[in-house]
Amino acid sequence: MDARKLARILLAVVTLLVAMPAWTAGCGAPGDVEADADQVAWGVGFDFDPFPPRESIDFAMDRYAKDPSSARARDPVSLGEFFGGSADSMNISRLRVELLKPNPRFSDRPVAFLHAEYYDGDMYWNNRYKDVQLFRLVDSTGTRMNPFPEAIDVPQEGSSILRVWTDYRPVSKGAPSDMPDSTLRTEVARIAVWSYVSGNVDGPASNGSNGGFARFTDASGRKFWRGVLIDAGAAWNTPDAGQRPWKTNILGTGSVKKENIPEDVVNGLIQIAGSSAVDLASRSRFANIDDGAKDIVRGIRGRAQEVLDNYGIHWDPPM
Q: Tens of pLDDT along 67-89?
């Protein structure tokens, strides 16, 4: 059974990466979830906000970290209940969906999160812990369109919660039909660059199930597609040369050109490239800024520098 079907099933609607195996460089938590990858009936009968504002997402995560019971809008539900189908997983007992109270100043509808218990207690090489750390690092740079799902670590539970995205379409299914070519090239650049910099050896350039597009909405209510990354369980490694953005050809868009890389991505890379290992580990909020944490962020920093150098983008070395 292909474990990455999990991404296609949960994340045919979600971004939330469940504990899928990634037998690479110390990564891995066993667990497959298999169902109809094209199913669209999800969340039926549940009241939740498909396009929650960031203020509601942060409010829900922060409140859950302090007191899970008071943060809930209702009792947790199984994956099968929420996603409208059977879910078969070696790790199913460690997974559930949480519907949490939003920030009442911005919304009155609950926010949906995937709740995943860590596997085997190894924080550095736990798949879902990587998702949390990568979201935090990119978010700390002020990147407006973070490709990683909003997520937090809940150490007292040995778990994480990750925000559920709407209308996720993986690269393996092709580009959304209503996505203009210019937008497609920009969003492909977003996921190709961040996947490589994160060190994901199983990123969308090699596995079309681990990156794609989710639908978002702006303040005016306009809906649009944005490039996103799922299942960072194989991150913090060294991708092969074929996954360098200037070597990829995702969805036939060819190698990533400098003019297609979004400005917020460039700004984020410049910050990462010019930061010390201690600063980057702090931005990621590693519980212990030890040699392991510093080695991880040095790898991320080195790949950010490599990308900037390749495209001739200036950055200032760390002090």
A: 999 999 999 999 888 877 655 55
